[in-house]
Amino acid sequence: MTARTELFRLNGAVEHDPAIDAWMNEHAGELGSIAHHWFEVMRKCGDEIRELLHDGCPTACLGDAAFAYVNVGFFQGASLPDPARLLQGTGKFMRHVKLKAETATNAAELRRLIVAAYEDITARVENG
């Protein structure tokens, strides 16, 4: 069951933000490629995904409710199931996965976390 919390809402999210494409181009290289890959996974979670740069970072939203960002963090990450223990951080809400070019990532589990974050924000938005 999803705990009731205040959602992190961002004005200005759009279907496809050219500023994110520019950010990706500016962050070429191995780590940029990793960031691009995982942001594409976020973009493909659903038709209602919107995006924008927030604090200089590509951010994925369900409408205006932010759920994930590069490099890869979750606004409601503390409530996500994480059996592989990928999530780091001790904040009340946010958690992140540290991606490093030289370190292998458990891709299946990270993809599962992104989908779980999307499903979580969908339930939070739909249930008020």
Summarize the structure.
This protein has helices at 18-26, 30-43, 107-126, and strands spanning 49-54, 57-62, 65-69, 73-74, 95-96.
Under the CATH scheme, the architecture is Alpha-Beta Complex
**SSE order in H/E notation?**
HHEEEEEH
Q: Which regions are unreliable across 5 or more consecutive residues at pLDDT < 50?
A: none
Compute the number of structural domains.
1
The biggest beta sheet reads: 5 strands, antiparallel
What is the top-level CATH class? Alpha Beta
User: Beta fraction of the residues?
Assistant: 15-25%
Q: Work out the number of β strands.
A: 5
Overall shape: globular
Helix content: 25-40%
Termini separation: 14 Å
CATH domain topology: Aspartate Aminotransferase, domain 1
Quaternary assembly: single chain
Task: Order the strands across the largest sheet as they lie in space.
Answer: 1-2-3-4-5
Gyration radius from CA atoms, angstroms:
14 Å
Structural class per helix/strand content?
alpha+beta
Instruction: Count the DSSP helices.
Output: 3
Average pLDDT over all residues: 93
What can you tell me about this protein's structure?
The chain has about 130 residues and is an alpha+beta fold. It has one domain: Aspartate Aminotransferase, domain 1 (Alpha-Beta Complex). About 35% of the residues lie in helices and about 15% in strands. It has 3 helices and 5 strands. Strands 1-2-3-4-5 form a 5-stranded antiparallel sheet, with helices on one face. A hairpin with a 2-residue loop joins strand 1 and strand 2. The longest helix has 20 residues. The chain starts with 17 loop residues before the first helix and ends with a helix.
